[in-house]
């Protein structure tokens, strides 16, 4: 299977939306059967649906009425209790499981064919000899090209049972059409975007969401960086909208001493469930820095709060989203489900970082935009705090509840907004498609490059950058980047690296001259953990 946007940087709004939508997952016992016993209120709703179904003058899709009713009920509870229709549940579940069964390629439906962007390292297609730039024309007896081909059909044709075989007909420039058999396998949907050394002592790990496989990905990366000499670690949770709680707890455990409180939850009956660090910690002494921004939510905030409240490391960036509610997924019996808020979580000092939602969902979600207006994204002094929600860490540091994690070291947002423009171009797919076309002109040359050769030999020049701007304008996009040519070149080269080598190399290039990372590098060279 391909996943055409797998390697595109996360769309900021979608990143947060996905995280807060997915909520958090803890281990709970199954609900008692008495929850489903009949009562007058339930019978009232059942009767209403039956009357409409059988007696109403016009034909009505009562399924849609039920969906609307469920949505309206949940909307009146809190912003994060949500309904998941059957057609969406499978995709969401697959994403959060961290892998799927497929052939292991990322692709564009490009000019009516499946054009391979790259193959997953170690995946089924790479093992079978498929390369970037190949066009997949057929899968078994199914044609995979033509204007009428839909993306969901593509995915269905390339998915299948584990270890099942699919015969592909492939076109490659210079070779023509040939057949190849691919055995389907487990293909990872990585939640870890990058792990590399920022300097000889400082390791960097970026995580885009908290899925079932996140802790394993993180632990492999941490162990690898330690073997490379990392004495300090940066955990980048910017634009990480959250996900499952369990991986965040295990990650925090790696940095906290035995029996330290990581966080606790409290339900409607006042029952408290504490989560403590265990003896698993493998990085309890070195310096630790956590990067957050206004799109870091849910499980990201659990991790950052545990580190901050235990005086374990430095939080760098801007105030996080402010989601302190825990959801549990419950099946509705027809392939759909709800994620219902069942408790609140609290950081080790006892603070809730959930922002208010009493004025309705619209105002709740628009609060994010209010931060632009009040200036807090550029100036730490503009962050509004309440003395009634003041807490003290064991080390005597003042922290606040009531709406997100406030960083120890503030780094303002770029006022030029050029980064937002460039990220928009990435999210739109225009930059990726332009780069793909340019790479395809010299596909054999680029496919033979190593990462080291790419970084040393490939430079994006003015003609390449201007070519992209002309390409975007032909597609009707108004872009004004005349004064930011170097930033554009950096994004174009990063996108080239992404298509050739994956997200790790993309992040390495994009992070060049990143303000938060530069701040961390400066802090890491000081003797004291807290400046």
Structural class: alpha+beta
How would a textbook summarize the main sheet?
A: 6 strands, antiparallel
The CATH homologous superfamily of the largest domain is named: 2-enoyl-CoA Hydratase, Chain A, domain 1
Determine Rg (CA atoms, Å): 25 Å
User: What fold name stands as the CATH topology of the largest domain?
Assistant: 2-enoyl-CoA Hydratase, Chain A, domain 1
CA(first)-CA(last) distance: 49 Å
Question: Percent of residues in helical segments?
Answer: 25-40%
> Unreliable runs, pLDDT <50, ≥5 residues?
1-33
- The count of DSSP E runs of length 2 or more, i.e. the number of strands, is 21
Give the CATH class of the largest domain: Alpha Beta
Question: How many domain units?
Answer: 3
InterPro entries: ClpP/crotonase-like_dom_sf, PDZ, PDZ_sf, Peptidase_S41A, Tail-specific_protease
Family: Belongs to the peptidase S41A family.
Protein name: S41 family peptidase
Keywords: Hydrolase, Protease, Serine protease
Q: How is this structure best described in words?
A:
The chain is α+β, with helices and mostly antiparallel strands. The protein has three domains: 99-188, Pdz3 Domain (Roll), CATH 2.30.42; 192-413, Alpha-Beta Complex (2-enoyl-CoA Hydratase, Chain A, domain 1), CATH 3.90.226; 418-516, no CATH class. It has 18 helices and 21 strands. The chain has helices spanning 12-22, 40-55, 62-75, 86-97, 124-128, 151-158, 214-227, 245-253, 299-309, 361-374, 418-428, 430-441, 443-447, 451-457, 462-474, 485-501, 503-510, 515-524, and strands at residues 82-84, 99-102, 105-110, 113-119, 135-139, 142-143, 165-172, 176-183, 185-188, 192-197, 202-207, 232-236, 261-267, 272-276, 287-292, 314-317, 325-331, 337-346, 390-392, 398-400, 409-410. The strands form five sheets. Strands 3, 4, 5, 6, 7 and 8 form a six-stranded antiparallel β-sheet that branches. The longest helix has 17 residues, at 485-501. The model is unreliable at 1-33 (pLDDT under 50). InterPro entries: ClpP/crotonase-like_dom_sf, PDZ, PDZ_sf, Peptidase_S41A, Tail-specific_protease. This is S41 family peptidase. Residues 89-174 form the PDZ domain. Keywords: Hydrolase, Protease, Serine protease. It comes from Aquimarina celericrescens.
């Amino acid at each position: 299977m391909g996943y055409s946007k797998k390697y595109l940087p996360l769309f900021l709004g979608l990143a947060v939306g996905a995280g807060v939508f997915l909520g958090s997952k803890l281990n709970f016992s199954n609900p008692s059967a008495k929850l489903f016993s009949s009562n007058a209120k339930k019978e009232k709703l059942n009767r209403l649906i039956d009357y409409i179904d059988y007696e109403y003058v016009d034909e009505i899709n009562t399924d849609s009425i039920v969906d609307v009713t469920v949505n309206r009920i949940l909307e009146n509870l809190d912003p994060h209790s949500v309904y998941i229709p059957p057609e969406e549940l499978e995709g969401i579940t697959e994403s959060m499981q961290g892998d799927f069964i497929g052939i292991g390629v990322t692709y564009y439906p490009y000019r009516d064919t499946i054009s391979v962007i790259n193959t997953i390292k170690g995946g089924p297609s790479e093992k079978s000899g498929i390369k970037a730039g190949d066009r997949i024309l057929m899968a078994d007896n199914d044609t995979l090209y033509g204007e009428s081909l839909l993306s969901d059909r593509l995915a269905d044709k390339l998915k299948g049972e584990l270890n099942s075989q699919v015969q592909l007909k492939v076109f490659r420039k210079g070779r023509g059409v040939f057949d190849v058999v691919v055995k389907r396998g487990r293909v990872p949907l990585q939640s870890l975007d990058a792990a590399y050394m920022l300097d000889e002592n400082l390791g960097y790990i970026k995580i885009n969401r908290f899925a079932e496989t996140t802790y394993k990905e993180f632990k492999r990366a941490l162990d690898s960086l330690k073997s490379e000499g990392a004495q300090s670690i940066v955990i980048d949770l910017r634009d990480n909208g959250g996900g499952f709680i369990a991986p965040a707890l295990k990650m925090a455990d790696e940095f906290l001493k035995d029996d330290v409180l990581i966080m606790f939850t409290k339900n409607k009956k006042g029952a408290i469930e504490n989560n403590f660090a265990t003896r698993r910690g493998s990085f309890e002494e070195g310096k630790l820095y956590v990067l957050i921004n206004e799109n870091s939510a849910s499980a990201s905030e659990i991790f950052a709060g545990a580190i901050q409240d235990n005086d374990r490391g430095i939080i760098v960036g801007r105030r996080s989203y402010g989601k302190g509610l825990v959801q549990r997924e419950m099946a509705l019996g027809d392939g759909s489900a709800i994620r219902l808020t069942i408790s609140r979580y609290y950081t080790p000092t006892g603070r809730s970082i959930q922002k208010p939602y009493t004025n309705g969902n619209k105002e709740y979600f628009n609060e994010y935009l209010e931060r632009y207006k009040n200036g807090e994204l550029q100036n730490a002094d503009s962050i509004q705090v309440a003395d009634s929600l003041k807490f003290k860490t064991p080390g005597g540091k003042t922290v606040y509840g009531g709406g997100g994690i406030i960083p120890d070291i503030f780094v303002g947002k770029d006022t030029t907004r050029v980064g937002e423009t460039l990220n928009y171009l990435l999210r739109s797919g225009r930059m990726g498609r332009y780069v793909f076309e340019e790479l395809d002109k010299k596909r054999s040359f680029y496919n033979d490059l190593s990462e080291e050769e790419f970084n040393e030999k490939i430079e994006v020049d003015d003609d390449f950058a201007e070519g992209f701007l002309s390409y975007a304008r032909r597609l009707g996009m108004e872009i004004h980047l005349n004064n930011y040519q170097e930033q554009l070149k950096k994004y174009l080269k990063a996108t080239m690296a992404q298509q050739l080598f994956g997200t790790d190399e993309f992040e390495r290039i994009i992070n060049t001259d990143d303000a938060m990372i530069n701040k961390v590098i400066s802090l890491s060279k000081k003797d004291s953990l807290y400046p």
